[in-house]
Queue: 2 jobs
Job 1
Amino acid sequence: MQRFSGKTVLVTGGAGSIGWAAAQRFSQEGARLVLADLNAERAGEMAAKLDNAIGVGSDVASDGGAQYAVEAAMAFGGLDVVFNNAGISGPVKPIHELDPQEWDHVIRTNLRSQFVVLRAAARAMIAEGKGGAIVNMGSSMGGWDVLSASPGYLASKHAVTGLTRSAALDLAGYGIRVNAICPGVIETSLGVPAADKQAHIESVRRFADRIPLRRIGQPEDVAAAVAFLASEEAQHITGVDWLIDGGQTLQSWANAPATHTFPWHLKGKPGER
Ligand SMILES: NC(=O)c1ccc[n+]([C@@H]2O[C@H](COP(=O)([O-])OP(=O)(O)OC[C@H]3O[C@@H](n4cnc5c(N)ncnc54)[C@H](O)[C@@H]3O)[C@@H](O)[C@H]2O)c1
């Protein structure tokens, strides 16, 4: 498939695991790529591995950084698609221990970034007058699942749904579609944080045991859905948020496997912590 021939795609967080998988997918399908990431060096290195791609260092949660990333794409060939993917998990702390500055940081990175990139991209696309597609990064934590000790992360991902729907309605008249994807656990250092290789293997096995399709999601699974939503095949789809979770969120407490180990980050019984 060459669904993105002649199109320019901006991927924020493009030097990270899911961003990179999406960049490769878009590239295989003929796109020009702009990878925008806080880590400028890595964005450049990753872009160098693709045909027709550049990496730019940018804090996409800042007004200037978002604008810079969009202008880089415009200068590189126009702006047809944005994958609004940059994000962090934030500190693993219960709400009564989370500092307001830590809250601000995760909300800024995961939510403000999406707003300022959307705003800058929408303005550029409206000016170009040929429509476009924007895919926001949500999470199964945005309304389907609940993770303890991550209040900022959950709040930011819930908000992605509202932002996506609102933007989809505002931009539909310009031929700009806005959708969100909501992955469950994906095998990246963000999704499966682990101290070493053995701990990683163990975490992956435990997660896979709790997912009905019995495997942990891969960045390529997310990339495939992003490419579809960004393509003309999805021309009548806007304002949706799509789970990509192997059935993870179909399991309530009542039918969860007996090996249920949540919350995985807490050690000891209540009162012993
Ligand atoms: N891995 C999972 O299980 C999972 C599940 C659901 C949602 N997500 C979401 O997917 C996205 C990507 O996650 P990942 O697992 O690939 O993590 P990752 O850490 O590999 O990638 C995130 C990338 O975003 C970049 N970034 C962070 N802040 C930025 C900023 N202000 N400006 C520009 N770039 C910035 C980082 O440098 C990094 O390259 C995140 O939004 C995350 O919340 C991940």
Job 2
Amino acid sequence: MNARIHYTKPSITEREVAYATDAAANGWGEKCYDYLTRFEGAFRAHLGVGYAIATSSCTGALHMGMAALGIGAGDEVIMADTNWIASASPIVHLGATPVFVDVLADSWCLDPAKVEQAITPRTRAILAVHLYGNLCDMDRLLDIGARHGIPVIEDAAEAVGSVWKGGRRAGAMGAFGAFSFHGTKTITTGEGGMFVTSDPALYERVLTLSNHGRARGQTKQFWPDMVGFKYKMSNIQAALGLGQIERIEELSARKRAILAYYKRALVHLPSVSMNPEPEGTVNGAWMPTAVFSRASGITRERLQQAFAAKNIDARVFFHPLSSLPMFTPKPDNANAWDIPGRAINLPSYHDLTDAEQDTVIGVITALMEQREPRHA
Ligand SMILES: Cc1ncc(COP(=O)(O)O)c(C=O)c1O
């Protein structure tokens, strides 16, 4: 049996180890924010935004950003049914309602036409999640937002390295963007996230919220002006993050090369489609994903069994959020409900070898060659 082929794993070099070691040994007292300041600055520069606040998670960044936009009880936030729950839970915690709409069949991201149909007088935001590194159609979503006076928020947890038309980076186009540096992501701090915006007033509100409601101009000690949050990143995590963002070109290029390798081997097969990259955009390729046609007869369960048999950690495509027990089922979201049953996320950590990718590809081609049981 081959050694286990993991689905994701970070790429940590001597640079990250040196920074984290320095932060642990020296990053205290007057130096306790040094790596945080450097990481936020480097991330801001990479993205081309005005402001960045490092957080303990992307979920925390979304929670504070939505709170700062004033989203609360009785409000609605439109988002794709295909998502990780982390995008929806801050909406629920704020007392608002996530309104799940269908995704496009090719990008697996928000269908702009469905977004427009779902707008009501209670809609307070459109949450655009760039799934697996694929980009939402930001031109159409921003246009819908502008016409209806509704902010577009970008959940770019999975989209560091993705660039929309005109060189605009994922996370830098909406009212605010949120990123994740969880250990599975393209760049990591173990756990962690980033809130970004170019709106100075929104930045000030989130900065205050992120400091337990203590405004930075407040001179009284231990004096919060409002109830806030505690979603901070530590200086030690930021040291790791600085090392990672300094390597962003290399790390993104490697993720893209892994996706391209899979695509070269698989997308000529008539039943397979993978992460798209529309003209003029860059897919950051966080999670190479294969979706099989209905006619192929290939199911999630068959894929899971075949990969498990080869000791390969392949993961299922996100279940529709509206199929989870705490929400109301919306099976009319046909793509969101149908695609997961015939799709799989493929291993893509930076140090994956060509031989390991060939093993993964071999599992898929063997499955395609098997006759479908019902035709056997
Ligand atoms: C689309 C999406 N949004 C939000 C999150 C939450 O990120 P975090 O775990 O950093 O809170 C994730 C994490 O996997 C994600 O994939």
